[in-house]
Amino acid sequence: LQQRMLTEIAELSDKLSSQREALEVKLAEDKGSVDLVDEKLQRLQAAVDDARMEDHQALQECLQVLDGHIGDLQEQLRSSSLEQAQLTTSAVRSAEKGFNTAMDSWKRGLDRLEERLQSSDLRLAQQSEKLAKLET
What we know:
It contains 1 helix and no strands. The protein is mainly α and about 140 residues long.
C-alpha cells in the first residue's frame, strides 16, 4: 500500500513537473509575445510622436506663412489708405482751387454788375435832371 502510494505520489510529482515545464514554456512564449507586442507598441508610439511633431512643424510653418500674408495685406492696406488719403487731399485741393476760381469769377461779375448799376444810376440821374429842366 505504501509502495503504491509512493508510486502514485511519484507519478503525480512527475505529472506536476511536466505540467510545470509546459507552463514555464508557455509562460516564456507568452512573455516573448508580450515583449513583441510591447516593442510594436513602442514603435507605434514613436511613429505617432513623430507624426505629431511633423504636423506641429507643418502647422507652425503654415502659421508663419499666414502671418507673412497678413503683414503684407496690412502693409498694402496702409499704403492704399495713404494713397487714398493723398488722392483725397489732392481732390480737395483741386476742388478748393476750382471753388476759389469760381468765387473770383463771381466777384468780378458782381463788380461789373455794380459798375453797370452805378453807370445806369448815373445815367438815370442825368436823364432825371434833364427831364426836370425840361419840365421847368
